[in-house]
Structure formats: C-alpha cells, structure tokens
Design brief:
The protein is an alpha+beta fold. Helix content is 24%, strand content 33%. The two termini are 20 Å apart.
C-alpha cells in the first residue's frame, strides 16, 4: 500500500494497465461511476484500499485526476473479483469501456473497509474524493 515509497524506489509512479471492463454498475448508481481494470493474478497491484492517482487513456494520452479503489468491494455480497476501479474526479460523462488505460498511484488514502450500510459507504466515498483532490493538487 505504500505507493509513495514505491514511486521513490522506482523513480516513477507505480501503474496498472489494462482494458476497461464493465463492472457491476454500483459506482454509477452511487454517483461515482468508475473505470474498472481487472487485476490478473500474475500482475502486481497495490494492497486493497483507496488511493489518489491518475487515469490516462493510452490511445489519446488524456490524463484525469482520480480516486482509485483496489479490492473486492466487501460491503456488497456476491462475486469477489479483485479490481482496480478509478473514479475520475467530478466527471460522470466519460465512457472508457474497451479502452486501454494506465492507472498511476500517487498516495494511499485508507485501507479497504466493509461498511454496515450503503449510506455510510457513500459518505466515506465523498471524503475519499475530497482527500484525493487535495493530494493531487499538491
């Protein structure tokens, strides 16, 4: 989870690359649509948690500030596929399905938590987005 330390050791930010796949659409329903990149078992990804970082379209080079969740969404029952889910800050008009993206991790915001209610999750997501905004502005 120490992506800032990893960046220092690597001389660049740690990144995950892949084609965006359709998820469960929960983020969209909660007001935070995400671009989902699967994490195959043979590729490294940061520890489960929430991060501030950047999502870049590989075809155009467009870079967007993002709040990024890595993990299995433990608040919800069902499939536990591990994903990297990036919410582009303040944008709900972008479509990335099938697009190759690169997700760069800047700093960890918090570990993964299972919430007792969707309302508590959404409240925390609001805080996560605000923290990501502050981190990426510096």
């Amino acid at each position: 989870g120490d992506v800032a330390g990893a960046a220092e050791a690597l001389g660049r930010q740690f990144t995950v690359r892949g084609a965006v796949v359709r998820g469960d659409q929960r983020g969209r329903e909660l007001g935070y649509p995400t671009a989902n990149v699967p994490t195959p078992g043979n590729e490294a990804a940061p520890a489960d948690g929430v991060y501030a970082g950047w999502l870049t379209r590989r075809d155009t080079g467009q870079r967007y500030p993002a709040a990024i969740s890595v993990g299995t969404n433990p608040t919800f029952a069902g499939d536990r596929e591990r994903r990297v889910e990036s919410y582009v800050l303040d944008r709900d008009d972008l479509e990335f399905y099938g697009v190759e993206v690169e997700v760069a991790f800047v700093d960890r915001i918090r570990g993964m938590v299972r919430f007792d209610s969707v309302e508590a999750l959404v409240e925390t997501m609001r805080d996560d987005v605000e923290r990501a905004r502050v981190i990426l502005a510096t």
